[in-house]
Amino acid sequence: MTEPRWLRITRPIVLGLLATFTLVPIYVMLTSALKPLKDVQAGFRWWPSELTVQPFLDIWDTVPLGRYFLNSLAVSGAAALLSVTVAIFAAYAVSRFRFRGRGTFSITVLSTQMFPGILFLLPLFLIYVNVGKLTGLDLYGTRTGLILTYLTFSLPFSIWMLVGYFDSIPRGLDEAAAVDGCGPLRTLLQVVLPTALPGVVAVTVYAFMTAWGEVLFASVLTSESSRTLAVGLQGYSTQNEVYWNQVMAASLVVSIPVVAGFLLLQRQFVAGLTAGAVK
Amino acid sequence: MATVTTPPDVTPPPAGRPATAPKPRRVGGTRFRLTPYLLLIPALVLELAVHVLPILAGIWMSTRGLTQFFVRNWSEAPFVGLGNYRIVLDLDGPAGRDLLHSLVVTTFYTVLSVGLAWLLGMTAAVLLQKDFRGRGLLRTLFLTPYALPAYAAIITWTFLLQRDTGLLNHVLVDQLGVTQDRPFWLIGGNSFWSLVVVSVWRTWPFALLCLTAGLQTVPGELYEAASIDGAGFWRQLRSITLPMLRPVNQVLILVLFLWTFNDFNTPYVLFGRSAPYEADLISVHIYQASFTTWNFGLGSAMSVLLLAFLLVVTGTYLVLTRRWRSDD
Amino acid sequence: MLRRLAPVAAALALLIPAAAACGSGDDDTAGGGDAGGRTITYWASNQGPSLEKDKEILQPEIDRFTRETGIKVDVEVIGWPDLLNRILAAATSGEGPDVLNIGNTWSPSLQATGAFMPWDEKAFEAIGGKDRFLAGSLSATGAQGKDPVAVPLYSLAYGLYYNKKMFAEAGITAPPTTWEELVAAGKKLTRDGKWGLALEGGNISENAHHAFVLGQQYGGEAFDAAGKAQFDAPGNVAGIKRYLDLMAVDKIVNPSNAEYAANQSLSDFANGKAGMLLWQAAASGLASQGMTEDEYGLAPVPFPASPPAGGKKINSMVAGINLAVFEATEHKDAALSFVRFMTADRTQINLNKTYGSLPSVQSAYSDPAFRTASVKTFQEILANTAAPMPAVPEESQYETLVGTAMKALFADIAGGRTVGEAEVRSRLADATKQVRAGG
């Protein structure tokens, strides 16, 4: 395919503009995290008056960032693994079986995506509290409750993506397995899943990121001991002032694991979407 | 089974094919009947417990005069019937007027933000379609905002939009001299545009991601054939790329619409617990109505109306685009 | 059939250990702190420079309490953005801390929930009597005629801070006592990129506090005698307009203050970008930003030169933090002895000294730390010219709605729009209707 000349000229310009747009906040985050406090209180400057790593040291003392980090890791990790496990089963059912209520199920699950969080935040909180009272299973203020919540947040999209992925895997494989005497579960585990690995990776990454960044529910459903990073970051705006340099440093620290993970698995993510979402 | 050790090459299904129903599984007659339901149980139970049940409770709450007097004992809150709805739907009263205003603002915000996010995503996806040096790097860069945790990303925007200490005014006023007055970006009319820009910044990578994935399923031969026929760039875009991306777009736009419409993080982190009137998005509006004044009956009524609105919009969209599997 | 289902069951079983594994990781976090009734939970509010610093400040005191009584205390410091939500959660669930800090303006609203122990005579006796507390601070502990919902812990009031050097350079010899003088002084200070006064135009609560005080000065009441909202009464409109005019008409406030909501005005004052500041106990905040005590002076907040009919001699709201006991606590005695400890002289002296706030009990003022000129100024304000925010359950709505209206008005002013009496009144009228409709 030969390209028209104008396209060859516009491409770098447009991509350059988009790159600038993308980069500016990231640049601000990076450089401000290396500035002394007086720099971020005065007018903006492109480069720190003196480079300092002090904000990166201070952030751990201003709020218990280490604990928040572990909480986020535990919550997001568990939520992602559980979500993807549940999604695999559901997606397999939808993709490979024809049964009564199949369409209803798909629509119901996907439609939960449109529920405004604000509507079920408070009732959910009430339910958690009452479950705790009735059964002694503490859901409110614990990581368990948050894991449960987050795994359902990513579930609809995950199921839907995996259904697409599974649908793209030829059924001939299943049938061959059935002839070999495999039950549906073994077929899923030994035939379908290995083929669908990129899709599974994509869904796991998606679920992890959903949980990692969530603020609204975490702010109401956690206590100090189960607080996650996304909410914990608010601790840098306090009674007296906003420590902008620390806010930026902490934001950076919080971002690195997910960004790194996402970018590493980016290829699988795209591959997963290709076969899944894009049928 | 052991014969299948490596995943066989899975050629992507021909794109744009109508969503065909999978072949019914009839092997073994009735004995598999229960299996799909068992497989669905975990997902179903979780969705019911964490989404559906609370929504029902929310609808119940919307019929109660649930104020701070009853937070301790919810069940005793007086039944007010449609009283809460009457208040929030009374367009002559301030509550109803503000809710309508908020809905209008949110709609504009969503349309603009989704439209721009899609446009940027589409542009970048098409421009990145052809391989060139640095393409991988650029793609990685573009995707970064999507991976950044919401709070971290938005708080950075808040910082760079400060009137006196932010980057934007530093560039506009001090360096370029575009205006003399330092404009405000987080209060007043501009706050709406700040909201749109931040939202687009965060969501367009997702559009890029989906569209990139979508483009990979478009067979290259189609373009080659079109080139031979003398079709130019725009012609190819119109008659190959866009039609091939139709299924992706239908879903992508719906998902972006729902995410953006219900977005709480962006306005909340950008403006704090009271958004400027011009950027009063519905989620924060309801949050303020219920959580800062503890009038949960009223807040729930607003949320239920919002849900109804979204149901109608989504339903209409789905009917118009007919994406649903028709089998059942 | 069973044989066919076995793999399904096996697969589902896979889920269970996973769930259990993550559940067990929670053991250490499952709060409650119920170890034999000798451990109580305390939610402290953020008073110091950071949540962690607060913990460091409180811990020695709490250790002393544990040594004295054998009762252990789990302290959790909660930031202000979270505190009200957490209290809501506690009130709703009946599962909360045993003792907690509340902003004293929340007292009437929280009282209405019934989730906190009312302080009757007997309860007060257990902590050494009601008379120990400052009368002013006691007035902000709930609705009149009802048992208080909390006791005062840290007391505060608004004062006018001024930069001595900037005043001297501008030839101002004495701090202003009237708004007219403040404007005149502000105009002298406003030059070379510096401004007369810094304020938090985007901070809802702070706006509402000034609305209340100035409303009182101009003869307004936010709620009538029957407790009905009337935010748009003439006195309230006049008071709020006086405050807004500092930016709109007198132009002694940098328009950028309209977006301040995170204490940037304190930084501006500390950095010499503004010559005056209306603030509650700014000492520790200013110190942490490098402004020493001899660099600034403190005076009472001004009054109008000629107050209109009905105007009151009020120049601050009764600010401060109260200490409440959770009604559902299972350790009421332990909770009461903790409150007794926190309001005892020694604890009051130690903590208030560190935080730069004022003790809530009379006897603590014998300590030399509280005999400075600035403490005396605050003490006098609290004793004579401070009034509690309206003690009605709708107080939180008042703060939210009026504070938000003022934020919008400041934004209009900063955006170059004219904000006259009509604009102020119409915003306040809307806010009034909203409270009446919802209430």
From TrEMBL, chain B:
Pfam annotation, one family: BPD_transp_1
Membrane topology qualifier: Multi-pass membrane protein
Main location: membrane
Gene Ontology cellular component terms for the protein in this record: plasma membrane
Family: Belongs to the binding-protein-dependent transport system permease family.
Name of the protein this chain belongs to: ABC transporter, permease protein 1 (Cluster 1, maltose/g3p/polyamine/iron)
Localisation: Cell membrane
Transmembrane parts of this sequence: 34-61, 108-128, 140-162, 182-201, 244-261, 296-320
Residue ranges annotated for the ABC transmembrane type-1 domain, each copy included: 103-317
Keyword vocabulary terms for this entry: Cell membrane, Membrane, Transmembrane, Transmembrane helix, Transport
Gene3D superfamilies for this protein: MetI-like
Keyword Cytoplasm: no
GO biological process: transmembrane transport
Region ranges (Disordered): 1-27
SUPFAM superfamilies given in the database record: MetI-like (SSF161098)
TrEMBL record, chain C:
Domain of life assignment: Bacteria
InterPro entries from the UniProt entry: Bact_solute-bd_prot1, SBP
Keyword Transit peptide on entry: no
Pfam families: SBP_bac_1
Alphabetic keyword roster: Signal
Range of residues in the leader sequence: 1-20
Name recorded for this polypeptide: ABC transporter, substrate-binding protein (Cluster 1, maltose/g3p/polyamine/iron)
Species of the source: uncultured Mycobacteriales bacterium
